[in-house]
Write a structure and sequence with these properties.
By secondary structure, this protein is α+β, with helices and mostly antiparallel strands. The chain is built from 6 helices and 9 strands, in the order H-H-H-H-H-E-E-E-E-E-E-E-H-E-E. Strands 1, 2, 3, 4, 5, 6, 7, 8 and 9 form a 9-stranded mixed β-sheet that branches. Strand 3 and strand 4 form a beta hairpin.
């Protein structure tokens, strides 16, 4: 005989925390919240929770459901905080901060380049940016497109190279019914691409 959903909800308190935490992760991906906002909201909920302990028992029982909602809200805020920590865009050294600027980018390929109709394409890990004579440590994923005339023999996994390029944000074409590649790439923490001509790239030895 199946147990009622309400009984399962009471017997598995972890579910009451996991579900709002997952909701917080999804919500944070759709809407942008700062770490300070999440932290202040979490502390506010925690202060309310603690303050209820100083009330008479009768009043504590009266606000029992509200305290449960506060706990779920705290779990949701925790999930939102986790989502922000996993999002490269919230890191100070994220390579995306150099969007649309002409830079020298040092990167390594995360997998062998795949051949496409007009280019070779490979996901890569950004390592350094050189601009105005300054070498700056960066992090983040990106898609690298190589012109078809390039020597593909060095487009293997782990290959490191430096190239003059501009970071371009990956955007959805906007056509109804088209595959939203930008959203798909975002799930892999990839938000930018670069197009590289053979004359502007050189292999880098470890």
């Amino acid at each position: 005989m199946r147990r009622p959903a309400a009984a399962l909800w009471k017997e598995a308190p972890l579910i009451r925390l996991v579900l709002p935490a997952c909701a917080g992760i999804i919500f944070c991906r759709e809407f942008s919240f700062s770490d300070s906002f999440i932290l202040c909201a979490f502390i506010g909920c925690a202060v309310l929770q603690i303050s209820f302990r100083f009330l008479p028992l009768a009043r504590q029982y009266r606000f029992q459901e509200f305290r449960g909602l506060l706990i779920m809200l705290m779990a949701m805020l925790f999930g939102a905080w986790l989502a922000r920590q996993q999002d490269d865009r919230n890191k100070k050294d994220w390579v995306g901060h150099w969007e649309d600027k002409k830079i020298i980018l040092l990167f390594s390929l995360n997998e062998p380049a795949s051949e496409r109709k007009k280019t070779f394409r490979a996901p890569a890990e950004a390592e350094w940016v050189i601009m105005d004579g300054k070498k700056i440590k960066v992090s983040g994923q990106l898609l690298v497109y190589f012109e078809k005339s390039i020597d593909s023999s060095f487009l293997h996994y782990g290959a490191r190279m430096a190239a003059v390029c501009r970071l371009q944000r990956i955007r959805h074409s906007g056509n109804p019914g088209d595959f939203d590649f930008a959203a798909y790439a975002a799930t892999k923490n990839i938000f930018h691409s670069v197009y590289i001509e053979p004359r502007w790239v050189v292999p880098v030895q470890d």
